[in-house]
Structure formats: structure tokens, C-alpha cells
Amino acid sequence: METFKLLSTFIFLLAYFSFISSPVIHGQNLPQDYVNAHNSARSQVSVAYVTWNTTLAAYAQTYANQRASTCSLIHSNGPYGENLAKGNNNFSGTTAVSLWVAEKVYYDYNTNSCTTGSNCLHYTQVVWHDSVRVGCARVQCTTQAGYYFVICSYDPPGNWVGEYPY
User: Fold this and answer.
1) Within 13 A of 41's CA, how many CA atoms are on the CB side?
2) How many whole angstroms separate alpha carbon 142 and alpha carbon 164?
3) pLDDT at 16 over 60
């Protein structure tokens, strides 16, 4: 019995240390990571949280795969709202969302517009009140070593002219 307990403890510790010392492969790129990053921003303006949608994620992945060869920030012109980003050094999905949310400082709620010469439309899409489903994807650029392309698709799409995001 004592040998069994000792062996069990050894196996547990071996598994535990193998797990904590292994690299995180998907860190900050899992569906819940994207959802959490969006919902953190949405909670600041009291709009409904987004949920992960596999149809949107599949759409985003298909488009990301198409963009991987050039990683050009060209919109798909598809049926969904869309945010794109590109970065290097293991650029993560949550980093992309953080960049979009950082545009908040350029959004003027009183005029419902971006400050002159600035972009805030990524931010307004993240917090758009009707956009309650999201799906995102991330690919490594094939022709630009170390760069990653991130896309998030939103349904229903936001950024309707004349409407407030929240």
C-alpha cells in the first residue's frame, strides 16, 4: 500500500511538472481569450457581451488562410463586421483586440465620430451594441517571417453610419 501511494505521488508530480514546464501553444489565441478581451471592453460601456460563434470563426479562418501569403490588411467585404490586425513577435489575438480597443481615445461620443485624422472604427466595432457574436482567427504570415495576421468577424455587423455604437 505504501509503495502504491509513493508511486501515485511520483506519477502525479511528474505529470504536474511536465504540464507547467511545457510551452503554452495557444496562449491568448483561444476562443475564450478573444471573447474575454472583447467583453472587457464592452463591460466598460454597458453593452451585452459577445459569445463565440463557430460559423464566424470558420469564416474568419478561411479568410485568414487566404491572407497568409501577403498578410495585407485588406477586408473581405463579406457579410460580417470585421477587424483586422497584423503584428510580429508572436502577435496574439488578445494583443490585436487590445490595439482595437486602444482606439477608444479617438472616439468622441458627443459627435459620434473619430477625432480628425484618427481611426476609431475598430474600437466601435468591438463595442457595437448589436454585434453579439464573434469569431476570430490568427495565422502566421508565410512571406513575412515572424508576422501574424488576426481577423475577428462580427454578427450582426456594426459601424452603421448615423448610429451610435452604445
Assistant:
1) 27
2) 38
3) no
